[in-house]
Amino acid sequence: MALLGGNENKKSEGAEMSFLQHLEALRWHLVRSAAVIMILAITAFCLNDFVFDTVIFGPLRQDFISYRALCALGHKIGAGDVMCLTVKPAHLQTLSASEQFFNHMWISFLVGLILGFPVLLLELWKFIKPALKDKETGPVRIFIVVASILFLIGISFGYFLLFPMSYNFLVNYQVSSSGIVETNNTFDDYISLISTMVLVSGIIFELPVLVYFLTRMTLLTPDFMRKYRKHAVIVILIAAAVITPSPDVTSQMVVAIPMYLLYEISIFVSKYVIKKYKLG
Questions:
Q1: Is residue 184 classed exposed, middle or buried when 0-12, 13-18 and 19+ CB atoms within 10 A define those classes?
Q2: Is 96 helix (H, G, I), strand (E, B) or coil?
Q3: Are 215 and 274 in contact (CB under 8 A)?
Q4: Other CB atoms closer than 10 Å to residue 248's CB: what's the count?
Q5: What is the pLDDT along the chain (280 residues), one digit of tens a residue?
Q6: pTM of this prediction exceeds 0.85
Q7: How far apart are CA 221 and CA 214, in angstroms?
């Protein structure tokens, strides 16, 4: 009973906090999150040889794990060498004196943000926890775990599959067979492409979380998503056709199937919310 009373006192105190006090509490949660991200970023900055040679420049090597896995998968399903990618030897150029330094800082920050993302969600949860009822804290805690896992899966999908396929397609693309135009990629373009695609992939994989909140706000229903499932499939197939390096169906399906599964999971999530909170 004492503990219960203590919780009630905390909630009553939280309810009596002024707007400025709420902002002050939020500021300290964000400061702690930023501190963790900065520590991870500084660590990544100091481990530049590993971060760049092993991780960032990994897709530029022929023995990259994704290329070996795709080639092995192609042989296993009887597609031969169709899914085997031949990586073009790359020498990234820098066009300004500060290009390497600022990209080094950007990638270090990005590593810190990706690794510190669960901590950021945890601090935000601590901020909103006093305003939640006891029965609501469980779902929010699960949300943090699910959102973190989905984000890291999306990052991995973008790094191991989406970016390697897209990069090799773009590097080998020719507007003319005459050979007049030669692609000499710059370090800045490479960093911009890999960071954008990996981050966008991580955000896209948060689709089930977004659907959860949209359904809670009655802005989305599973019936609506089922109705436009065919449209979603067409968009997914077009996206897969654009980012895969070859026109064969097998390579396109490697990219399209995870995206389609994500859409189906989102329909299930929307249905679950409608049923659990009786919004229908």
A1: exposed
A2: coil
A3: yes
A4: 13
A5: 344 444 444 444 444 667 778 788 888 989 999 999 999 999 999 999 999 999 999 999 999 999 999 899 888 988 788 888 888 877 899 999 999 999 999 999 999 999 999 999 888 888 877 766 666 666 677 888 889 999 999 999 999 998 998 888 888 888 888 888 888 889 999 999 999 989 989 998 999 989 988 898 888 999 999 999 999 999 988 887 776 655 667 667 878 888 899 999 999 999 988 988 777 6
A6: no
A7: 8
Task: Select from 259, 248, 252, 198 the least CA-distant residue to 59.
Answer: 198
**Amino acid occupying residue 277:** Y
Residues 81/189, Cβ–Cβ less than 8 Å: no
* C-alpha closest to that of 194 among 85, 81, 110, 70: 110
Q: How many residues does the chain have?
A: 280
Amino acid type, 264: E
Mapped onto helix, strand or coil, the DSSP state of residue 115 is: helix
